[in-house]
């Protein structure tokens, strides 16, 4: 279980204060697919990055399996970060390495033998349905295929949690559907807790069980997906559910 208690984050930019997160309290159950939705600049990325302490909160606590992690040193965080995989909107693959080597990369630091790494990477390639692209370079792949490689790389260290930062935002609807169904399968078959941030309500509806809405760094609403879609409370949620494009 992941618990955030009164998490705040202030950035300082040329002496200007930017309050990216304000007193966020949130609980994410093990095995959930949890959505965090909000407009651009609302604090979604900052929030998700506090969960693996890529961003340290200015105040508040973050509990992973009951342990407050905010005071851990960078060294103490290493084994914990291995339990948290992350994927991104623009995939973040190494362009000079093949698909195989991109996925093998996190395993090369673990003391596994070449044969063990090869076996594990082949299993992961099979899971994301990309075995035939094993020796290609990222430039030769479609966006959806690149995201599958990124997912396989994230799974290589056997994470308990997968953080997805706008993972489908650069993809067309059909490819988005295939990536979401892969994430759902990973959640079901491997029991990995998935936290997915997005500005697309349809993504939340497709796979999340619970969802939190954030606006200007504040948690404005949290509920199970069906209730949130049927009975949205906050104006922001209503707007996200029913977007209109009006130009002044
Ligand atoms: N490293 C940083 N230094 C200064 N300000 C930052 C930093 N990271 C984020 N911010 C600011 O914090 C606020 C929240 O940003 P964040 O990236 O978390 O929002 P977001 O909802 O993920 O937006 P987007 O969907 O556009 O990525 C913004 O005002 C942003 O400019």
Mean pLDDT: 93
Task: Report the principal-axis shape.
Answer: globular
Number of strands: 10
Please outline the major beta sheet.
6 strands, mixed
Rg result: 19 Å
- How many helices? The count is 9
Question: Could you give the distance between the termini?
Answer: 45 Å
- Ligand list: adenosine-5'-triphosphate
The share of residues in helices is 25-40%
Protein name: ATP-binding cassette domain-containing protein
GO molecular function: ATP binding
Pfam families: ABC_tran (PF00005)
Keywords: Amino-acid transport, ATP-binding, Cell membrane, Membrane, Nucleotide-binding, Translocase, Transport
Report what the structure shows:
By secondary structure, this protein is of the alpha/beta class. The longest helix is centred in the last third of the chain and has 18 residues. It is globular and about 55 Å long. The strands form two sheets. It has a six-stranded mixed beta sheet with strand order 6-7-8-3-9-10, with helices on both faces. 35% of the residues lie in helices and 27% in strands. The model has no long low-confidence stretch (mean pLDDT 93). A hairpin with a 2-residue loop joins strand 4 and strand 5. Adenosine-5'-triphosphate binds next to strand 1, strand 2 and helix 1.
